[in-house]
Design goal:
The chain has a 4-stranded antiparallel beta sheet with strand order 2-3-1-4, with helices on one face. The protein has a two-stranded antiparallel sheet with strand order 5-6. It folds into 3 domains: about 50 residues, Winged helix-like DNA-binding domain superfamily/Winged helix DNA-binding domain (Arc Repressor Mutant, subunit A, Orthogonal Bundle), CATH 1.10.10.10; about 70 residues, Lrp/AsnC effector binding domain/regulation of amino acid metabolism (RAM) domain (Alpha-Beta Plaits); about 60 residues, Ribosomal Protein L24e, Chain: T. It is built from 7 helices and 6 strands; from the N terminus they run αααβαββαβββαα. The C terminus is likely disordered. The chain is α+β, with helices and mostly antiparallel strands. A hairpin with a 4-residue loop joins strand 2 and strand 3.
């Protein structure tokens, strides 16, 4: 897989967006490629973080939930602190950090008292300068945030140095998974680090996680 999605990648993604329960065999028959091709392409897109997971989309209104759009304002330097305080709350369903030092949260809840307690807890957060909220009355359209277009490409960070890759870079396969490096130097250093982690950890799961942590530390 390159940094540019080809037509096969787009067809696979469209089929998955249309029906996340579709099997690789079903997708292969619909788009005219082999099942192993679909499987390898999907795994590559999972490896680079393009496919974040599969989930069932529920209608909050049918479940009897109330939805609220909440805008929080803070200083630019405090945005991450505010996000950390709210992102794990059960009634917070989406969090968007905006360019004007505000945070947009979409909330869904059954219990009004829990919502009031949540607002009261936010009022005690010194980094939050202002709050505005509005109840969602209708949802005429609700689509996944990522829009798949013919121009779409991939923005991949080097697994070692963390820099955004502007060209094809280097793709290597280690223990069944693809890893992306921006240059031969990072590839060499990454392989060395990977092997050291593999010997010390004894299994590949923690190795991959720690390898990504290395990228963020450079």
């Amino acid at each position: 897989m390159s940094l540019n999605l080809d037509e096969v990648d787009r067809k696979i993604l469209r089929e998955l967006q249309r029906d996340g329960r579709a099997s690789f065999r079903d997708i292969s028959s619909r788009i005219g490629v082999s099942t192993p091709t679909v499987s390898s392409r999907v795994q590559a897109m999972v490896d680079v973080g393009l496919i974040k997971g599969y989930s069932t989309v529920l209608d909050a209104g049918v479940l009897g939930q109330v939805s609220v759009a909440l805008l929080l304002e803070s200083k630019p330097a405090d945005l991450d602190k505010v996000v950390d305080k709210i992102k794990d709350e059960e009634l917070v369903r989406q969090v968007y950090v905006l360019s004007d030092s505000r945070i947009l949260c979409m909330l869904s809840f059954y219990n009004q008292s829990k919502y009031q307690k949540f607002l009261e807890s936010l009022a005690q957060v010194p980094e939050i300068l202002r709050m505005d909220n509005s109840m969602v009355m209708k949802v005429p359209k609700e689509s996944p945030r990522a829009a798949l277009t013919d121009e779409a490409g991939l923005m991949i960070r080097c697994y070692y140095c963390g820099h955004m890759m502007k060209d094809e870079g280097v793709k290597i396969k280690l223990d069944g998974k693809y890893h992306y490096l921006c240059c031969s130097v990072c590839e060499k250093l990454y392989r060395e680090k990977y092997e050291k982690l593999k010997k010390s950890a004894g299994n590949i799961g923690p190795i991959v996680q720690e390898s990504h942590a290395v990228a963020h530390s450079h």
